[in-house]
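Why this split exists: single-chain examples teach little about how molecules sit against one another. For that reason, every record in the complexes split bundles all components of an assembly together and asks for one structure covering all of them. Below is a record exactly as it appears in the raw files.
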Amino acid sequence: MKNIAVLVSGGGTNLQALIDAVSAGVITHGRIALVLSSNPDAFALQRAERAGIESAVVCHTDFFDRGDFTHAVVEKLREYDIDLCVLAGFMYILSPEFTKAFPNAIINIHPALIPSFCGDGFYGLRVHRAVLERGVKLTGATAHFVNEITDGGPIIMQKSVAVEEGDTPELLQRRVMEQAEWDILPRSVELFCAGRLAADGNIVHILPEDKK
Ligand code: GRF
């Protein structure tokens, strides 16, 4: 059984999808051992409490710089013996100490089809605004491993979502979450916990289920 930490800063709907996936038996090889929030007021903390999951707040304003903040986050994750970190709306880019401490063991969910609409500056509603401005007809979400390049790590799973006439960034954000993010994030987490993800450079292979 793998120990999962979910890192959040806000509403935590992806955290909720993970909690629900554990209850529903979609995630069976891992448990959420810790919810770590960068924001003491994040609603995600209430979701953790309701589900009986331990939580911690590591607030960036309490630290001198990004390196110090990252160090505190890594220490907290070590305290809980974490095997997998899930970035679920975590609003800070951590320093390389984080990716070095968890090589190919950090999963992020990005609300677009990487390599489109990703990288520095593409977060939250900005992503969906850019999608609508470019006029693409398909968008979606990507679950990927995190490395030192923003949204540049190996892709685990993607799911497309149609852009519809009359969409606003808010409507599109909601549809991408409902149809893609809340589906592929828990499934990617389960594959990792079951030992079925093998990263080979940029390519992630999904290994067949062990039929013992
Ligand atoms: C999601 O759109 C996710 O793709 C992005 O941040 C948002 C988090 O939303 N990384 P929530 O806090 O999980 O509701």
